[in-house]
Fold this sequence. Notes:
Blueprint: H1 4-35, H2 45-50, H3 52-66, H4 75-87, H5 95-110, H6 116-143, E1 150-161, E2 164-171, E3 189-194, E4 205-210, E5 220-225, H7 236-244, E6 250-257, E7 274-279, H8 283-296, E8 302-308, H9 317-325, E9 330-336, H10 345-351, E10 357-361, H11 364-376, E11 384-386
Parallel strand pairs: 7-8, 7-10, 8-9, 10-11
Antiparallel strand pairs: 1-2, 1-6, 2-5, 3-4, 3-6
Residues 39, 42-44, 47, 53, 56-57, 60-61, 81, 84-85, 88, 90, 94-95, 97-98, 129-130, 133, 391-393 line the site of protoporphyrin IX containing FE.
Amino acid sequence: MLSTQTRTIVKATVPVLEENGVTITKLFYKNMLGSHKELLNIFNRVNQAKGAQPTALATTVLAAAKQIDDLSVLLPHVEQIGHKHRALQIMPEHYPIVGENLLNAIKQVLGDAATPEIINAWAEAYSAIADIFISVEKKMYDEAVWPSWQPFEVVSREQVGSEIVEFTVKPKPASGIDLDRLPIIAGQYLTVKTHPSRHQNQYDALRHYSICSASTKDGLRFAVKLETEKDKPNGLVSEYLHKDVSIGDELLLSAPAGDFKLDEKLKNQNEIPLVLLAAGVGATPLLAMLEEQVTVNSKRPIIWIQSSFDESSLAFKKHVDEALQKASNSKKIVVYTESQSRIDDKFLKENVPAGADVYICGSFNFMQSMIDHFAVLKHQQDAIHYEPFGPKMATVKV
Ligand SMILES: Cc1cc2nc3c(=O)[nH]c(=O)nc-3n(C[C@H](O)[C@H](O)[C@H](O)COP(=O)(O)OP(=O)(O)OC[C@H]3O[C@@H](n4cnc5c(N)ncnc54)[C@H](O)[C@@H]3O)c2cc1C
Ligand code: HEM
């Protein structure tokens, strides 16, 4: 239990941290990754370049500082981050490295203002926060459907949209995984550990990919969009998977993770419709959810809404149609942004029934704008579920 004095000091320093939070975390990453090069095998260096992870960490540290009187209110956020940490195989021994470097960065940025009392209070607070993460993550490691990184073989590759390739993988015998007994929760993601050789890269690169089918009959399926941005190098791992990974190759995967899943208690009823709202490659987890829903209860009303640039980039057309055919009450709407207006509150008002349970997946901008539109429509907040393909905290206002 943190002392009253420690909690008072931590709360009193929140405004200073708010002012310097992003500078502190950027310095923290620079120092930590400079002195612990082995961590470059875990952290996504493009996220560092873009500042996404530093913002997420700063937000979380501030949220923790504000809630220092009762850290249990952070638990839902810790669980969500814990899934990512477990998927990336972050271990308890990593926490002191982060703690030491975070405190050093605070000292460096605040200079004389960082008195020994302040530093000690933050050391205690960090330790309390780290203990919560470690205990939440221990449960996740215990419950993971396979330990650590296990070898899988690519058994099929299929182009499922102009920029999207679907991979089907099966566990290699050395993994000891029995595919037929693997519990799959639609909405969860796999994490792939790769070692792309581009630009003499010496480090592993880890990325998450959503499982795109509820069935494991032919293997585990995930689909990858080739990430391209004007005037930027192509995405490291998506380019590697698209160009260099073929049938027969091995991929190392950590066990499915994530808390994006259908509301269990609504699957078997037929009054509250399921709305699946996808943009681009964001269709991946939603397709698995669609398949799961029609397998469990095909009578529940389902509305599938998919936004895509044009017809050639529309992903999973065949798979979506096959799954929707099994539903007795379904509607499919496709919006091509090349020629139609984007999805806005008017569109959502017309097409999403009030009270529907809604699952959204797509780019950050897409998801943030959908969340904002639903807020305008006063759609029940706990009926909106979403999965950004990047740090989730950046989308959430804590
Ligand atoms: C929970 C979750 C589920 C996901 N599911 C899927 C999925 O099902 N399918 C899928 O395709 N993706 C999915 N993703 C995204 C995926 O994990 C990767 O982030 C994505 O494939 C990009 O990785 P990359 O290595 O190819 O790109 P990175 O190398 O990480 O680059 C990302 C982007 O930055 C640009 N870039 C490269 N270098 C720089 C630079 N120096 N400065 C600025 N920009 C730069 C690249 O062009 C690229 O567009 C998911 C992510 C999460 C968190
Ligand atoms: C209490 C301490 C920590 C906090 C508050 C924290 C917070 C976060 C947050 C908010 C995210 C983004 C989650 C998301 O994607 O939604 C994240 C991701 C991540 N964390 Fe942590 N974390 C902590 C400890 C650690 C440790 C000890 C390590 C390993 C050294 C680590 C490595 C990572 C990595 C690799 C990611 C993925 C993002 C990327 O690759 O850029 N974290 N963490």
